[in-house]
C-alpha cells in the first residue's frame, strides 16, 4: 500500500473544499464562476462583441463571481491570516502608523501638486484669453470702420493705417492684415517693419496662432463682401508680465514638427518641443518651507499656414507662497474661512488617526498579555519548575501557543534525555567515521609505472561506498571500487565486511576460500583464485574468480535485500596490463593519452544478490599518460533541474585537468559535483578513484 504525504493530503482536502463548498457564498462563487467561464467561451467561439446580449450576460455573471470571490477572500483572510500572531502584529502596525501616514502624505502630495499646478497654468492661460478678448474687441471696432469705408469705396492703405494707429494704443506691437478679395495689405506695428502674411490668413478662429517659431494672439473679423481684418499681436514677456509677477517663471512651448507636443521633464524642459518664450523668475523663498515645483499643461493653438489645430504646452515654475498669495489676494479677511476649513480637515484626519490607534491597541493588548504570561512561564522553566502551567484563554494562535508551552514543560525532561541519547549516537557515528576513514588508502605510490588516488565524500556521517588499493608484491596491485546498496550505518557495516573479504582473498586466497565454493561459486573445478600465465611461473590474480567468491560469501552472510556493485582490477607493472572484472558497477573511464575514451564495461551482475553467479574477465594495456577513473553513481547521477551531472561532464573535466596532480583532479571533480548540487542535500556518497600510468 502506497503512503500519502501530509502535504499531498492537505492539497487534496483544499481541492475538495473548492469543488464542494458548504456555504451559500461558496456555492454562489462556484456556480457563477462556472457559468461565467462557459459564457466567455461562447463569446469567443461565436465572436460576440461589446453590446451584444451574450456579452452582457457574460459580463454580469463575471461581476457576480468577482464579488463572491472577493467576499470569500476577505473571509479567508479574517479566518486564517488574522489567526497568526505575526499577521496580527502587522495589521496593528498598519492601523496605528502606516495607513494614516500614507493617507496624509498621499492626499497632500497628489492633491496639492495637481491643484497648485493647474492653478498656476490657469492664471497664465486666463491672462492670454483675456488679452485675446480685448484684441477681438479692438479689432471688431476697427473692422467696422474699415467695412464702412469699403462700402463707400474710399478704403485705401493710408486711411486704414491712420485708423489702426488710433485704435492700437493698447497693442503697440499689433499687426493688421486687410484682405479685400485678392488684394491684401499689411499695416505693421510701429517700428516692427513689414511682415509677409500671405499664407497666414487661413481660418476664422480667434486665439493663439503659431507661425514658424513665433506665437501670436490673433483676432479675425470677416464680412460677406470679402473684406477680412486680421489682428496679430506677438506673445512677448511684457504680455505675460502680470502672470510672472504673480507666479514666477513661465514657459510656452510649440509642438514639434510632427504636430505633437510632449510635456518635458523638469530637467529636460524645452528639449522635446520648440521653446517659444521663457520669462520671469521664481525669486528667493519667503519662508522656511517654500520649495520650487514645476507643472506643465496643454492648450489649443492654430497653425497659421494651414488653419489646423495643434497642441502647445505652458509650463509654470513657482513656489507655494506665491500661489497662496495669488489665490487669496482678493479675499482679504475672508481667507480665514479657508484656514478654518483646513483646520477642520486636519481635525478629521486626527480623529481617523486616533481610531486607528485605538484599534491597534485593542489588537495588541491580547497579544502582549499572552506574551507576558509566556515570559513568566519561561522563568519558571529556567528555575526547573516544570509544574507551572499557563491559564489558557481564547481560541486563537496565542492560545494554541500557550497549550503548546504547557505540553512542552510536561515533556521537557523526556526530550532532554532523548537529546543526551542523540549526542551519544552522534559521538559514536563520529568514531565510526574516523574508523572508516582509516580503512581508505587515500594514495598509493608503490609502483613506479602507476600512481593512484582515492577520494570519498560521504552523504552522511559514514559512507556505503568502498575503494581499496592492495599491493601484491613489488610489481602488482589490486584496485577495488564498490557501491553498497543503501546509505548510513547498515551500508557502512557491509562496506567493512566487503573490505575484509577482498583483502583476505587477495592476500591469502588459499587459506580463506570456503570449502565447496569452487564448484558453486567459481564455475571451475579447481576453486583457485590464482592461475598460471602462459609459459611463466608467475601466478596472477584472477579478478573474475575473486568476484565469484565474494558473491558466494555475501549471499550467505547478508540479508536478501543487501548487495553491492563492484569493480576489481589487478595491475601488472611489468606487462602494463590491467586485468579486471566489473560486477554491475558503473563502467570506469580510461582516458588515453591521445584523447580517446574507453569504458571498462560490465561483465557480470551485482554481488550478493544471486547465488552461483560467474564473472568474466577482461584486460587492457595502460600506456604512459593513460588516466583511469573509477567512480560511484554519486558522481554522475546528482540532478539539477531534472538534468544529471552525467559522464560527459566528468570526461570533460578529466580532459581539461589530466596534466594536473591526481589530488588536484580529485578536488576538481568533487568540487564540480558539489557546485552542481548547490545548496541541496547531497543525495549519495561521492567516490572517485584515479590511476595514471607513468
Overview of this protein structure:
It is a single chain. The strands form five sheets. This protein has a nine-stranded mixed beta sheet. Strands 10-11-24-21-18-19 form a six-stranded antiparallel beta sheet. With 694 residues, it is an alpha+beta fold. Helix 8 packs across helix 9. The two termini are 56 Å apart. The chain has helices at 6-19, 24-46, 53-79, 85-152, 157-167, 241-246, 320-327, 335-382, 397-439, 488-507, 509-512, 517-520, 543-557, 633-636, 646-657, 662-677; strands spanning 175-180, 183-187, 207-211, 214-222, 227-234, 248-254, 274-279, 293-303, 309-318, 443-447, 450-457, 465-472, 476-484, 530-532, 539-541, 564-572, 577-583, 589-591, 597-599, 618-621, 627-631, 639-640, 643-644, 686-693.
**With helices defined by DSSP (H or I, 4 residues minimum), what is the helix count?**
16
Residue stretches low in confidence (pLDDT < 50, at least 5 long) are 1-8, 191-200, 265-272, 510-527, 531-538
CATH fold assignment of the largest domain: Phosphatase 2c, domain 1
Superfamily (CATH H level) name of the largest domain: PPM-type phosphatase domain
- Mean pLDDT across residues: 79
Biggest sheet details = 9 strands, mixed
Give me the secondary-structure category: alpha+beta
From the alpha-carbon coordinates, what is the Rg to the nearest angstrom?
Answer: 48 Å
What share of the residues lie within helices?
40-55%
What distance lies between the first and last C-alpha atoms, to the nearest angstrom?
A: 56 Å
CATH architecture of the largest domain, by name, is 4-Layer Sandwich
| Outline | elongated
Number of domains: 3
